[in-house]
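Need tokens for this chain, all 333 residues.
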Amino acid sequence: MASTYSSSLNLELQTTGENSGTWGTITNNNFQKLESAIKGYVSVAVASTSDSLTATDGSTTDEQSNAIIKLTGTLTGNTTMQCEAVESWYIVDNATSMGTYTLGFKPAGGTAASLVSSSKHLLYSDGSEMFDVLADCGNISANGTLTVAGNVEFDGGSFIFNQSSADVDFRIEGNGDANLFFTDAGNDRVGIKTGSPSTELHVVGGIKATGDIDFDGGGFVFNESGASVDLRMETNTLANAFFVDGSADKIGFGTSSPAGAAVEINQANSSGAIACLALDQDDTDEPFIKFDGDSQSDTSGNITTDTSIGSLTGYIRVDVAGTDRWIPYYATS
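Here are the structure tokens for all 333 residues:
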């Protein structure tokens, strides 16, 4: 009976009493193929968009019997490299120049695993599909530096940085900023566009929030450094419903340029005929308005108690508890 060959490595399986005089040579060939399957290396230039590794029964020069396969050459289109449709495993070094094309590695007639440019893959085949081990693996521990040139996707689990609470900073770079996001582990601080955050959250640049902001348990200070910085709040129709003029040290309601007083109310014309200012004092045993000024018997102070001076000109109408009241005023002091 003639020799047969194994399905995975194409080893020559000799029958009893056969190959007299060549038995040793055939056995040595089988040993060499086994050695290649365990530790062998071969470099293969991709010759076409549908290429195959050589596989020859009993030969020690076939390509697919090697454990490590380096693919070289320049792709001219989307390419597939295939081996025989048998169970096997490979370490594949993709050293091809891929350009914009794809490169797959598969068992003949089966499903390919996609290779990444300038990358090394640990692959195995069940005879009908090629699997990339690191594309679907379990826990991975790296004692050194882990460098990833492609995308990193976390799906279905949490991500924890610095589980041991060591003094280790975390930094994310932007296109033009080295510290787009920075965590200062030693001081327990977070910086946006700064590598030296001075508070728990330090932002260099603007902040925009489209949802609610809740300050709970602490004070809110605007312009701590006392710079000439304005503060403006809008309503549905007023661009300057509340305005702080940082350079003039004034506050405006309805105006962005308060000038006539430290606090100026500028009410726009309204079809609702509403008052400019409404005061509601529910503490009936307290003054309606408290004024801290200088009262004099003449006109040298903020308030005068002299009722004999001046020429009464008219009255200012005020609404007190729903009833019109009048405050007299004089054209001269």
